């Protein structure tokens, strides 16, 4: 369904004022918006009311008061329960719902269809930042769904961070959030901690570890850029270190982690991927051939 692109959005309701929700409210207030807040634990709203937000008398009141409803709850299951009460359902027509909770692509599509049946507009979004960055240019926000609906609320969202529309398919923002933040960032951060723990176990200080780390990050970026054409063409032949070489090295490193008394869950996962790639005949190919192994694992699951 298409949204009305006329007028400026000034009245916003934020449902869920945990750490990220509260940061969103404060950024909207700072930009001069009229913000209504609702939270299951009402006491969390008190500091925001002191700063200028309006406290909704009920969830229905929060939905009725504003044209745009920002959902900053934990996950899609909670938002589904919140929206599905009779008193709220009857107030949804004509409203624009912006989803910032964590969920799955399937749930994003389901929520869009459910809201469309109730004549509400829907934008799926993800805030790619910690609360400390909300309200600054460092806060990146991606959104997907109907472009005209997005364009209508974009000036308001620009008060929260740097906003980008990533696709008309409503689940696209969710997919990108889960793949880049959920899979890559979270696992990469954990790998950083696993590496730091190994260094610490052998007496290297955090400062010594960090003296080498920035260079490795730059190599990682270069390696990713090098691998993109291979992933697009599915051709992993080349003269760089092969899967066989990586497998031998990482198997030894896993043993060293164990010997140092460190947990090695991530390294074990990598070794498992490398062994699987070898069993599939990719031993002489370059490291990015793991992309095919992981894709095949996904298709079989």
Automatic annotation (TrEMBL):
Q: 6-phosphogluconate dehydrogenase NADP-binding domain location, by residue?
A: 11-163
Q: Which UniProt keywords apply?
A: Oxidoreductase
Which InterPro entries does this one have? Answer: 6PGD_dom2 (IPR013328), 6PGDH_NADP-bd (IPR006115), HIBADH-related (IPR015815), HIBADH-related_NP60_sf (IPR051265), NAD(P)-bd_dom_sf (IPR036291), RedAm-like_C (IPR048666)
Q: Specify the NADPH-dependent reductive aminase-like C-terminal domain's residue ranges.
A: 172-295
SUPFAM superfamilies tied to this protein? NAD(P)-binding Rossmann-fold domains
What molecular function does GO assign, one term?
A: NADP binding
Q: Which family does it belong to?
A: Belongs to the HIBADH-related family.
Protein name in UniProt: NAD(P)-dependent oxidoreductase
